[in-house]
Amino acid sequence: MASDLFSLEGRVALVTGGSRGIGKMIAKGFVDQGAKVYISSRKGADCDETAAELGEACISMPQDISTVEGVKSLAARIQEAEPKLDILVNNAGAAWGADFDEFPEAGWDKVMDLNLKSPFFLTQALHGALKAAASDDRPSKVINIASIDGIALNPLETYSYHASKSALIYLTRRMAARLVRDRIVVTAIAPGPFASQMNRAARDHGDEVAKRVPLGRIGHDEDMAAAAIYLASRAGDYVVGATIPVDGGVALASLPREAISG
Are 191 and 148 in contact (CB under 8 A)? Predict the structure, then answer.
């Protein structure tokens, strides 16, 4: 077995939403494995701060990608800086919760645009750069960050979030079927409870959340980094179109509520 199975030496990556939370976990993991990592986020100061923290192999490239215009701007900037791109992580996302009778159009459009539309159009805009880096021996990688909420319902009324993440899982399969011919491997990760900015429950009440996780704890930074490294590296080259839940068993190994209570 190759000793460099999980190495990312010499590879160039872009992680959207990379200044904090899950994106930052992944960016750090990639840097630690030898990649040159561009991180993007809407807030420039946060992006700069994280890049400085992760070291010279991490480059800040702030950009709002909630619109197609923003997506194209980021793609153009990356391609000005790099002749090719080995890894794209579509992580930038948003959530919105409201009662069914009060759920607003703004909460629908914001979430669907950023969580579903932007990953598609950013991958499209970077198709040439990803293809330039790809070969039979070393395919390029696109990793979409979905959610276990795309696999199983949670009790919260996050209608557009649930819909967007479920759709992203199927979009991953559709994109994988097309891009594999260019030796671009598309996969997804479905995170569960991690102490991220978006997951306030896990961040602020980790011990309580852990009681509902079959493995008995919330996710560690290394859990998320390891899954992304696996998919981005040689180790994951033969995994195409799959979505990997990284959730301690919440989505696929939890007993039904009636079994737990009864």
Answer: yes
Residues 187 and 172 sit within 8 Å (Cβ to Cβ): yes
The pLDDT of residue 142 is 98
Q: pTM higher than 0.85 for the full model? A: yes
Active site residues: 161
Torsion sign over Cα 205, 107, 165, 197? negative
Give residue limits of the domains in the chain: 12-249
Beta bridge partners of 40: 16
Q: Is 159 within 8 Å of 105 (Cβ atoms)? A: no
In this predicted structure, the answer to whether residue 86 has a pLDDT above a threshold of 60 is yes
- Residues sharing a CB contact under 8 Å with residue 175, sequence separation 6 or more, in sequence order: 120, 123, 142, 186
Class of the domain covering 12-249: alpha beta
Each residue's pLDDT tens digit, 36-68: 999 999 999 999 999 999 999 999 999 999 999
- Contact between 13 and 38 under an 8 Å Cβ cutoff? The reply is yes
Q: Mean pLDDT over residues 246-254, rounded?
A: 92
Give 60's Cβ-side CA count (13 Å radius).
18
Q: Find the length of the chain.
A: 262
27 in Cβ contact with 37 (< 8 Å): yes
In this prediction, residue 201 carries a pLDDT of 52
Closest CA to 8 of 187, 245, 237: 237
